[in-house]
Specification:
By secondary structure, the protein is mainly alpha-helical. It is built from 3 helices and no strands. The chain is flat, with a radius of gyration of 14 Å. It starts with a helix and ends in a 5-residue tail after the last helix.
Length: 70
């Protein structure tokens, strides 16, 4: 399990590095972890069962991560 976590963290760090020019300068691994936990909660426990509210939430969140919106 620890190996899987380390591997996942490595993939996440690579993803952030590859997207660095497009992300706001202060974006961190902690932000990605928060987004992941938050999205899991929104998907698992939606306010309106059967809706795609998670897609709207993700779009709003991602828009806020873009460098030009910082």
């Amino acid at each position: 399990m620890v190996r899987s976590c380390r591997q996942g963290a490595g993939f996440a760090a690579e993803l952030i590095e590859r997207a660095h020019a497009r992300l706001r300068a202060d974006f961190t691994m902690a932000d990605l972890a928060t987004l992941t936990r938050t999205m899991a909660r929104v998907i698992r426990d939606p306010l309106d069962a059967g809706s795609d509210e998670w897609r709207r939430f993700l779009a709003i969140y991602v828009d806020g991560l873009r460098a030009e919106n910082a």
